[in-house]
Predict the structure.
Amino acid sequence: QLVESGGGLVQAGGSLRLSCAATGRTFSSYVMAWFRQAPGKEREFVCLINESGFIPHYSSSVKGRFTISRDNAKNMVYLQMNSLKPEDTAVYYCAASLVFTATLSSYDSWGQGTQVTVSS
C-alpha cells in the first residue's frame, strides 16, 4: 500500500515536498516513481528512482527543479519540488514497479494521489 502526503497550494516559484509511505517488507526491491495527472490530461511520468536510491531519472519537464529520493529504512519516497510553475498543477501519484522504467503500465501499485496546485 502506498500513501502520499504533502500536497497543497503554493505560489509560482515556491517549493513543496511530497512524501510517499509504503507498507510491506519488500520495499527495497521496488523501483519507485512519481506520476502526475492534470485535469483533462493523461497521467504522465515525472521521475523515478532505482531500488538502492542511487539512480534517479527525470522527465525533461521537471529535470533540474525536482528531486526524488528514498529512505529504505523508513519505507519512504520523497519528491522535493522547487521553482514550481502553474503547469505543475496536478494530482501527484506514487507508484511501485519491479522494472526500471518510465512506462506507466509497468507500475502495479499506486497511491491515492495528493493534489498540488501552483498559482500564478
The two ends are 34 Å apart (CA to CA). Residues 28 and 73 are 9 Å apart (CA to CA). DSSP finds no helices and eleven strands in the chain. The chain has a mean pLDDT of 97.
